[in-house]
Amino acid sequence: MTAAPSASQRVIIFDTTLRDGEQSPGAAMNLEEKLRIALVLEEMGVDVMEAGFPIASKGDFEAVHAIAKAVKTSSVCGLARANPADIERAAEALKPAPLKRIHTFISTSPLHMKHKLQMEPEKVLQAAIDSVTLARKLCDDVEWSAEDGSRTEHDFLCRCVEAAIKAGARTINIPDTVGYTTPQEYAKLFKMIVNRVPNIDKAILSTHCHNDLGLAVANSLAGVLGGARQIECTINGLGERAGNAALEEVVMALRVRRDVMPFTTGIKSEAITKASHLVSTVTGFVVQPNKAIVGANAFAHESGIHQDGMIKNRETYEIMTPQSVGIAKTSLKLGKLSGRNAFRSKLVELGYDLGDNALTDAFNRFKDLADRKKEVFDEDIMALVDDEVARANDHIRFLGFEVQAGSKGPQRAMLELSIDGASVTATSTGNGPVDAIFNAISQLVPHEATLQLYQVNAVTAGTDAQAEVTVRLEEKGRTVNGQGADPDTLVASCRAYIHALNKLAVKRLKELPPEVAVLSGV
Questions:
Q1: What's the pLDDT at 377?
Q2: Is residue 516 situated within a structural domain?
């Protein structure tokens, strides 16, 4: 029997997809989408999930509150600046959570203190003490971050860390906020803190690395080698600017290279691909094919030399198995003759647990897909199910269309929708079949939104590949993403546009107050 890892070997995984990841331009998620992602993160075994920035808006507060109610085994975290209003709002949002954390921060680098905060160092130090003290009165688990920590003067950083721990912080985060540091520097920074801060044994040190120089994962791992025991990261490396350290890369690097990094995490890596696909679908941020761990080509071998090696021994060219990250063999045995129970078993294998109604809808779409495609892949099933779940509560539904297209034109679409259960039709022309479809939708569902993004991604290879389409609409400051999947790109486009309009309708009904002017840069 293998001995359980000691506390010094265990690395806490702090996922901030729902907070820092959402700060990517265009990656905004609604409450339902955040809940879906939060439950997948919990299923994956994430230790702490940063659910949002409660004071930023009414919507952010409600999302954090809903996640705090739903999540039972992961700690739910809310972000707060170093002021009482932020901290009290975070505490209120987190009340229902069995496990909760308040994460408060303030900038400590000379550049940020002078130009962003316009505060003297001693006032920053006092603000850090006051914020942690208040947070600790409202929550047992408090994390404090030194924003722009990698560019902070060492003497001042050590004073702040020592004071924050004395005030009650259990976790100390030293972020590389602008992605400036290198692995060697970052490791030395943590070693310096461990050696110089007298009460450092009373807190866990944390990394939070941005990817501006492409070093976020390398820096995070270096931080662990330097003494950190928490890594802050996001699914697919989602985040503002160039993104954050990618959870899947950090976890698998620690798992595969235990010979040089003898650490463990609590992550069930088999859920990684499901989480990656869900985040990509919800945000519309397509994962690049050569992305480590979760890219379409991550386990693909085309070179004859590589294929020969793989046939002889998989380990010649694969350092981990596809199954270890939740990718089954790409050839799926299910087909048009498969039954409901076989389909349900495949969904369970892929990590999905659908209710009877959702299962019936997904199964019917699967049978349609199997009739139309020569070969159905796991990725097709995942795209189909995610698409079905995304529109479970839509009041506008796609029923069908006929399109007249061609190089000579005119391009015309005859569209049928269901709006609140009533069938309606419209015919429209456009500059191409997609434009004609979108114009027909606008006739049936009048709106003032403008199309900001139209993106098509093939789920698998081949001319019969299922298409995943992302549509981004903007109306009076409201931005929403819609997704659609179908072997017919035009159908997928129509589904995506309708999905976006459904989300826009929800936003109109539930207007949010203006967001806080200055959001986190941690």
A1: 75
A2: no
Domain boundary residue, one of 368, 390, 412: 390
Pairing status of strand 142-147 against strand 100-107: parallel
d(CA 152, CA 146): 8
The reported pTM is 0.76
| Whether residue 85 is found in the same domain as residue 51 | yes
Q: Rounded to whole angstroms, how far apart are CA atoms 276 and 234? A: 10
- Per the CB < 8 A criterion, the answer to whether 369 and 473 are in contact is no
**What is d(CA 214, CA 409) in angstroms, rounded to the nearest whole number?**
47
The model's pLDDT over 34-70, given as tens digits with 9 standing for 90+, comes to: 999 999 999 999 999 999 999 999 989 999 999 999 9
Q: What tokens were used for 409?
A: 């034109």
Considering 342, 366, 390, which residue would you say is the last residue of a domain? 390
Phi, psi of 7 (to 5 degrees): -60, -35
Closest CA to 47 of 76, 24, 5: 76
Query: 3-class secondary structure for 129-172?
Result: HHHHHHHHHHCCCEEEEEECHHHCCHHHHHHHHHHHHHHCCCEE
Within 134-282, strands assigned E span 142-147, 171-176, 204-209, 230-233
Q: Structural domain of residue 411, as residue ranges?
A: 396-509
Q: How many residues are given for the chain?
A: 522
Supply the pLDDT for residue 464: 72
Please give the tally of structural domains in the chain.
4
